[in-house]
């Protein structure tokens, strides 16, 4: 990554990222390690090669815990393991999600439950699991990834957009609930970030051209474009910012 800013207060802090071994999550792991933070992440796929790369690059290894965040006890155990290894988690990044395309007519109860489990339920229970440790540490920052897809009213994945809209509501309520303990809770809504998965599965020449036409800034978004916003929300530079939704999308949607 190209480091453009240093957030000195993140050095030696304990960071936990869901889905931190690929896509945007991998860029976040890289970004926090560059700040000197102690990073742990959970993911379903083997990320040992990525861990080796990060160790070679930063001289410090992130803690990789393989597991499925939809299994809530597995998620909680991973967070406990991370806290034991790196100290109380003071930054939680709920990043893992799945934007599997689907039409309303094809959705059954099992698919609904799975989509909500990965795109919202795991977020809530990760917030629940980290709250006491942050309270004991004197505060912390929770960053819940949302998406501009629901703001755009996109078709093609209605459960995903419903979950992302719900994440904003949950974020605001938890910010109110956790605020007295100096725990900040914010949402971050990326635009269409061209991860390898997006390129392999969803990007078409016409679709990308149409999306770029809606952006004020005409460059495509890369995972690295999201890192700075997350570091800012994690650091004390945003210490009086909570219950908010930050959008990084090249200017597709307008908030306020």
From TrEMBL:
Alphabetical UniProt keywords: Oxidoreductase
GO molecular function: oxidoreductase activity
Record's keyword annotation contains Transferase: no
Keyword Hydrolase in annotation: no
Annotated InterPro entries: KR_dom, NAD(P)-bd_dom_sf, SDR_fam
Pfam families from the UniProt entry: adh_short_C2 (PF13561)
Superkingdom of origin: Bacteria
Domain (Ketoreductase) ranges: 13-192
Protein family (similarity comment): Belongs to the short-chain dehydrogenases/reductases (SDR) family.
PANTHER family hit by this protein: OXIDOREDUCTASE, SHORT-CHAIN DEHYDROGENASE/REDUCTASE FAMILY (AFU_ORTHOLOGUE AFUA_5G02870), SHORT-CHAIN DEHYDROGENASE_REDUCTASE FAMILY PROTEIN
Protein name in the entry: 3-oxoacyl-ACP reductase
Protein's organism: Litoreibacter roseus
